[in-house]
Amino acid sequence: MPAYIDDMRKVAGLLRQSERIMVIGCSGGGKSTLSRKLSRKLDLPYFSMDKEFFWLPGWVKRPKGEERHLIGNVVAGERWLMDGTGPSTFDIRVPRTELVVWVRMPRWLCLWGICKRAFLHLGRTRPDMAPGCLERVPDREFLTYIWMFEKRFAPLVIAALDKHGPNVPVFQLKSRREVNHLLDLLGAPT
């Protein structure tokens, strides 16, 4: 079982001390927005997995070997905050991570987040996506992924956290109110 912690004040203290942080969660849950805010507040370099590693222009997936090489270069550094779930790279990322923040919102909120994101950025590249990846209307496959995330993918995340970092603290945020409270504790703008 991952090393869950549930004391938000303790997490705020850990965040202030940590120099290598992963922010994970289902698409649409707000992990990128939170990551940007934490990065600014904690003065940590921010890396979006989608933008930096996963996608090439035009929604072309980067070759896996190249992706892993790029991630390895970043995680070898002393200071970073990385936004993205991708359990297939937990073997590279988690052992170097000092704290995992899991944005674990209800699926209806993730679906709302995806729809809102599509509406706000439709036909343009959003800030956390690779250049040339224009936002589009979510398809059925993507919506199903979000709807089934807790059942199908959360167990993979838990297993990978347990395997690659059983002692790495994991803090779960399960509501917007909790996110805002954590940011308030850090003195970050919400």
TrEMBL record:
<protein>
    <submittedName>
        <fullName>AAA family ATPase</fullName>
    </submittedName>
</protein>
<dbReference type="InterPro" id="IPR027417">
    <property type="entry name" value="P-loop_NTPase"/>
</dbReference>
<dbReference type="InterPro" id="IPR052922">
    <property type="entry name" value="Cytidylate_Kinase-2"/>
</dbReference>
